[in-house]
Each structure stands twice: as C-alpha cells, then as structure tokens.
C-alpha cells in the first residue's frame, strides 16, 4: 500500500489510455489493480486499461543534449516529456507543464531561480531536490557525477524515479562522449590541414618530394618530442613571418 | 598533503579560501586548497552534499536551512568559521533611485525607507509592484532586505515582489529591467553602478552593523572525520583574514580576486569593495564607509551561536513556520564555536569565552571576556536599534510583527 502521505502525488497524475491521455486520476487506485507491462505500470480503472504516466520536464542549457535525453526517455517508454525552452521564460513553461520530475543540468544558471519557484509552488505535489538516501544512493551520486540534478514531487516512489535517473545519466554520458569524439574529429581535421600546408611549404622552399617533406616533419617531431601537427604549425607560422626573406 | 576542494561563487567575500590558496597560508598549515567555482548556490550546495567538494563558501542561512531540511531532505552541515561580516549592498535601478529622491550622499535607512514606501505603495496600487532580486531564498541578503522593508512599513510579500537573482546575473537582471533593485554581494553592486544601470541605495552594514555573511560550511560527517585537517584549514583561513585587512596587501589581493578564474571583474572595482570605498553612482567619487566589509577584527570570523539564532528567527518569520525550540537548537548547533576555539587555541587569535551574545545590543564599544583577556566589540546595532536575545526568539518575533 502506498503510505498515506505519498498518496497526494498520485491523485491528479495524468492517466493515459492506449490511445492517449484519459483523465487526471480522480482517486487513489489501489495497488493491487496495477500491473507492470513493458516497463510501464498499467491499471484497470472504470472498465479500461490506463497507464500511470510520469511527466518529465527537461531543462538544459544545451538544447542538443536535451534532445538526446528526451530521445532516450522516449525509447524507454517514458513519453510524457516536456522540453523547456531555455530562451523563453522558464517558470511560465513549468507552470503550464506541472511536471512530476524535473531534470536539469547541474550547472544550469537558472537553478537558484528554479529552487525558489519550487519552494513557492502552491501545487499539491511540490517538487523537492532529489537526494542521496531518498532514492538509491549510487544512482543519485552517479547522476550528480554525470552533471544531472533532479527535482521530484514528493509521492513518487524511488522505484519509479530510478529508471528515469539511470537513463538521464546514460544519456548525459553519451552526450559527453559525443562531444569528445566531435572534438577529436575536429582536431584531427585541423591537424591534417596543417600537415598538408607545412608539406607544401617544405616542398616549395627546399625542393623536397612530398614523402621526404613528411619524413622531415616526422623526424623533427620525434627528435623534439612534439606532435607532427605542432611542428607543422611552427613551419606555417615561420613561413607567415619570414615568407618574404630569401 | 591533505586537500580541501572548496566551492565558491564569484564574489569578493570568497576572498579567504582564495587567498589562503594563492598566498601560501594553506601550505603553511600543511594543507592544499582547490577552489571550485560555480554560478549558483544550488550547484555549490549540490557539490558539497554529493562530495564533489569538501567545503564551501556558503550563504549562512542555506547551511541552516539544509540542516533543518527546508526544501530538501535534511542533511546536517557544520559551520566552524565565518568568512566575514556584511559587504553587501542594496542597489536600486537608476529610475527607482530617482523616484526615491536619492541624491549624492549615503542615504539614511529610515528616511530612504519612507520614500521607498511611497513609491512601492503607489506602484502596488497601479498593479505594478516593485520587484527586488535577492540571491537566494535562504540568504542573509533576503533577510536583511526583508528586515529593512518590514521595519519601514513595506510588507515584503504583499507591497513588493521578491525574486531570486543569482549573484553573477544580478547586474544583468537590473540592466534588463527584470528587477527594480537587487540585494547582492560585491562586486555585483559596483558593477551595476559602473555600467550605469544602478545606484547603491544602502549597504547592508547600515541595516545591521555586524551582520553575519558567508560562512565556511562542511558536511557534519566530514567535520567529524577530518577534525585535525579542518583545524588546519581554519588556521589557514584565519591567517588569510589577517592578511586581507593589511592595507599594504589590498592591491595584490584585489588583483588576485579579479582574475578570470575567481571574480572575473575589474581590479579597481574589487579594490573599492575591499577598502570600504563605495562609489554610489557612476559619476560620483567613491566615499569611505567604514566597516562596509568587516573582516578579522573583533573576532569577526568567530561563529557565534547567536548569529545562527537570528538567522533562524528570520527563517521562521519569512517561511511563516511556527517557532520551534527544538529547531532553534538544531539551527544554533550548526555554528561550531567549539571547533573554532580548538583550532586556534594557543595562537594569537582572539577567542571569546562565550559562544552566544546579545546581537545588536552594543551601542558603544563594549569589552567582553576572551581566553586572553578583554575583546572590545564595536557598535553592532540594527538600524532600528532593536536588540536580539537568542534566548527569547518568540519574544523578539512578537515584537517584530
């Protein structure tokens, strides 16, 4: 049985039928009517199957990261999502959305404002800061390490929060990996361009063949313990500065 | 060498951990400090609670609120050191300053309050309440501003609107017209003035002459585990405080604090704050306001339990929660004069024998007992001259409403 003080969070929760939202839950549905199917909790109410849906709001300074998180949650069947536009008034959007879980990037500059809004909220189910001990300690710590912070309405049981959190964490990490890869790809491209330029300079200046120019760059890099791209940059710089000299 | 990662916001009053790190006071005590900069108090607090940092430069009421479980599940924090007194100001938009008839000099809080009341009530009657930004719900800024407003007859939650503006965004909020005034720490008031978007109306030292400001906060379990190392940290911060008030060091200190990794602000702006020279409006010459930012002297870094008690009294007042003797005790126990004394025992530091005092009751210099003799406390009054007795919070609150 859900403890009495947790019931309020359930009443008013959006209920979804197979064809979309049914109604706001008017009363507490007894737990024995609930069935878990496909990771989703279903209940049989008033002659139809309805789904308990957790409405999740995502607030992120990076809209591409927000999109990646939303995609992951959707794939996991958590489809009641609201992506908050960071460039429009955030509080008005939250007011309309009335989410039960708010995911926000740890370093979001609006966090003090958000916390104040939650504290002032007159809504029945008021989101409070998620915390170690409140859910799974490891899950919470992992979330913060990944850079996710969450506010969750009192009344949502930890078993329902944890999957959301785990997913958000994986998506945050995936995003960080993507960023790293993108950075590497960009660096690699820049490196190759520099090396090509330096080779051309050496070929013209010293009359070397292309393989010999490259070999010269490589030998110099090895003997001075630098990357080939760094040596290439030095060649380009010196050419730019001394290009006019015979 | 044991190390402390210390969270902070870009504010001049984060000076002590920064100077302890930069000027060698930490290594002299056998510890290393690693400053961790953030942009909101929520992030600073999260990092502290989840162990990304070991200690934090924190607004004092937030340490108490976190321990009491306001807005989140309770986690006990401990405050063994106060990072300074006051150093904040209330800055009006230039339009509001003009409407309140602010001229060249420093304003009188009571008289300015009357002028503001007229403007505020007129605006409220027109359905456009004045809006003030404070740095956090649980900040001394919020409590000082509310104390002043209420005392001059402006009901903070009815006649005006108070919103949250994190320090690094306060000047922007004023410039954008999102708020009509801000109560924030330095350099953000002076930056508003230099940008020509604000006029410093009051400094918080005018509201409470010796108001407790930022504190060093740790998780209580960390303090219990790392007692000896925390002692070294307190000694390093105390040495940094002595260095901070040395006039010969001011220029160098300002240059350090101005760096991009700390306050990221002009050296000259920071210099004004740390030398108590306040430029009230863009075209005015800085004026000297003694004790604007109070540090080191008069055992300013000593965590008085009575300071925590005053903050708790304001927390119940503005959260509109009933006074609870049990909560008051928990709130006061967040401040740890015992840890401060133990860390600095045998040093030249002034160690008050008592852990609590009447706040705002010193109208003339007063001598109090310390381990080494007498400590002379300067005037510490509230602008309305109402003293605070930590042993009678209900009586104090009854007198305020």
Description:
- The complex is a heterodimer of chains A (246) and B (401).
- Chain A is of the alpha+beta class and 246 residues long.
- Chain A folds into three domains: 4-52, no CATH class; 56-178, D-Maltodextrin-Binding Protein, domain 2 (3-Layer(aba) Sandwich), CATH 3.40.190; 180-242, Orthogonal Bundle (Arc Repressor Mutant, subunit A), CATH 1.10.10.10.
- Helix content of chain A is 50%, strand content 19%.
- In chain A, α2 (63-75) crosses α6 and α5 (137-146) packs parallel to α6 (158-206).
- The radius of gyration of chain A is 28 Å and the shape is elongated.
- In chain B, 41% of the residues lie in helices and 19% in strands.
- Chain B is globular, with a radius of gyration of 20 Å.
- Chain B starts with a strand and ends with a helix.
- With 401 residues, chain B is of the alpha/beta class.
- Chain B folds into two domains: 2-85 and 211-278 and 290-299, D-Maltodextrin-Binding Protein, domain 2 (3-Layer(aba) Sandwich); 88-209, Periplasmic binding protein-like II (D-Maltodextrin-Binding Protein, domain 2).
- A five-stranded mixed sheet of chain B has the order 2-1-3-11-4, with helices on both faces. A five-stranded mixed sheet of chain B has the order 8-7-9-6-10, sandwiched between helices.
- The relative contact order of chain B is 0.16.
- Chain A binds chain B through residues 106-116, 118-119, 128-129, 131-134, 140-141, 144-145, 149, and chain B through 38-43, 46-47, 49-52, 70-73, 75, 135-137, 163-166, 168-169.
